[in-house]
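In response to reviewer comment 3 from the previous cycle, which asked for concrete evidence that the modeling workflow produces usable outputs, we include below a single protein chain processed end to end. The sequence was submitted unchanged, and the resulting structure tokens are shown without manual editing.
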Amino acid sequence: MHDGWLISGLSLLPRRTLSRWMGRAAASRLSREAARAWVRLHRIDLSECSIPDGGFPTMDAVFTREPRPGSRPVDGALDAVVSPVDGTCVLVSEVREGTILGLPDPPLDLPSWLGGPVEDGSTVVVLYLSPRDLHHVHAPRAGQVGRVHHRPGDRWPVRPPWSTRSSSPYADNERAVVSLVAGEAQWHVVMIGAFGVGDVRPCVASSSEASPVSVDKGQRLGTFHLGSTVVLIGTRWTPTVTAGEPVRLGARLGTACLAG
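The workflow returned the following structure tokens.
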């Protein structure tokens, strides 16, 4: 009931405008003291990240902090599909008839949502990033970047259980889609903006036949400025993660079916 009232209240507010203001405030030097309080409130483990001289200058710097070298080793096994983020798995599903099973109605129109085709039977894992997690997004497999598709949109909350009350956070929110080809497999890494997210920023560009863009497994694809959710869609793989389980950047998330 409490969440329902909050969602009803948010429906009356200018969510995109408020989110932009929150992003600007978080990037301001005036947020320095709030950043220190945020670290204490969420018990963020600073031993696993690089801290700028003098501490974090802004709230945004806490969210976009860099992991210490070696603190997020990438599983180098050839068949390893690695987690693109630190976070929590909220759904393991599959694509059927152009939508993701298990999301509330109305169903997503995936080709439109992704900005391109998606293979029926593709496997889906949805990962939620909490306020204490690192907010960079990385490649689950080595491959070539296909299309990078960015679409402005709304800013509904994505934190469970809000995201399970309606598919609007997935269908309507701002998103950036990085599509990868890894051998015979096709991948889509979808970065979904949420209420309070100042920006969703990919850091890779689309490929062309003349100038293909290759990425290594674990290479950075983009960054959330504040928090959100990643939807990972891929072919020819089997997840080893289950809903409710925490995930760690670079650790095995599943197993790829290798050609040959």
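The chain has two domains: 2-67, 80-256. We consider this sufficient to address the reviewer's concern, and the full set will be provided in the supplementary archive.
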